[in-house]
Amino acid sequence: MGNMALTIASSGIDAQQAAMDTVAENLANANTPGYIQESPTLEAAGSFNELGAGAGVTTLGATQAVDGLLLVNNQQAVGALAQTSSLQQVLQTVQSAFPVSTSSGTASDLSAFWQSWDAVAQNPSSASDRTQVVDAAQNVATDLAASSTQIATSQANAQTQLGSLAATDNGLLSQVASLNTQIVVAQGSGSSPNALVDQQNQIMDQLAQDLGAVGTAQPNGTINVSVGGVKVVTGNTAATLSVAGTPGSLSLTTQTGTTVPATAGTAAGILAAVNQYLPAYQTQLDTVANNLATTVNTQLAAGYTATGATGQALFEGTGAANLTINTAVATNPQLLAASATATAATNNGANAQAMANLFDAASGPDQSYQSFIQNMGSQIAGVTSQVQTQTSVANAAQENLQAVSGVNSTNQEVLMLNYQQAYQASAQVISTVDTMIQSLLQAV
To answer: Residue 389's closest CA among 84, 92, 152, 151?
Structure first.
């Protein structure tokens, strides 16, 4: 009986030591990204003999506190937050080129342009006032071109960012596939794959943020990874992603040409900015430029120059990037059609006054520009609100996951004391049995 008690107590010491090892592992990794809390798996051993006494405890290893549903929910929440955040960042870089205040930027220069016509209306024969009209027109054209360039630059930078993201994530997808292989090998050899699962979990956090990727657990312990419903990792095989198309029709594709419809993650936010928001802003800005050219040139065509000739166009070209000043008018401001009559045109500023009065035209360029700015501001405010909402959702999902899979230091310390007491109790059994055996030997 003494030998049996010693064996049982010895198994208890081994089991409690293994349990203490899991506590030490958990506490050491309390702040390690991707780490999943472990718990010792203990099982009562079968009885030794017909008396029915047990054979102690068997340590089967350590299991991870994984909740597949909470894990997927967290990945989806991370992806949704990254999508709105990346979209917000791209749009804010563009918004900086369009100040809301009318005291600077295009709005201010448009105002100065109309005021310069008012000065010509008051003094049609003034060469300096006519030159000021040309200078003011050039300022507006320069503003519009700069704004157009800012949009194009933001598109190009976003596309470059997406390309870099795809290149980085190709490496991560390959790592997931490699870890899948290692997990299968570890399980086949009877080793614990927990550390490999932790590495994979950390990589999936990044893939969820970058691509909105979601991992689906498989019966053999591996995971398949999908982006927008398209599998990018299956077993030990990973897809290679690349960027295809041009702004407006940009997409992520695999090496087989399959389009990967990123609906979450940083990639989705970039794609939305490049394909939807920025092209729309460019179109609206071009509308402002074309409206300005049409409005001004139409009014000039109705007037006459200082010499009584029919008015020439001031603006040439179409679109914000290509709007220029008529070289002939720029070099000879006397060609500005300030007069409403062909006779005595030198001192007639009626058409210039009509031009100045267009500053608040209901469908004029100023109103087009303000509508554009307001639309942009409203959209970015909406995206900012979404970021705030998704931040709360992501925090809640992370907290729910941590409650199950994360390390609670306080609980681990309580478990540590329990395992310590059980260890001491098993040690006491060994000591007691040893005393009994010594007593028996002395009696003999």
So the answer is: 84
3-state helix, strand, coil in the chain (%, to 5): 65, 10, 25
Residue closest to 309 by CA, chosen among 284, 333, 336, 290: 336
Give the model confidence (pLDDT) of 375-415 as tens digits.
Answer: 999 999 999 999 999 999 999 999 999 899 888 888 888 98
pTM (2 d.p.) = 0.85
Q: Please give the Cα distance from 260 to 254 (Å, whole number).
A: 7
pLDDT digits (tens, 9 = 90+) for 103-123: 678 999 999 999 999 999 999
Cα(350)–Cα(370) distance, rounded to whole angstroms? Answer: 27
Give the CA angle between residues 135, 289, 102 to the nearest 5°.
Answer: 65
Question: 128-180: per-residue pLDDT in tens?
Answer: 999 999 999 999 999 999 999 999 999 999 999 999 999 999 999 999 999 99
Instruction: Read off φ and ψ for residue 230, nearest 5 degrees.
Output: -100, 125
Q: Which two tokens stand for residue 110?
A: 């448009």
* Distant-in-sequence, close-in-space partners of 55: CB < 8 Å, separation ≥ 6: 4, 7, 8, 11, 45, 46, 47, 48
How do 230-234 and 223-227 pair as beta strands?
antiparallel
Under DSSP, the state recorded for 276 is I
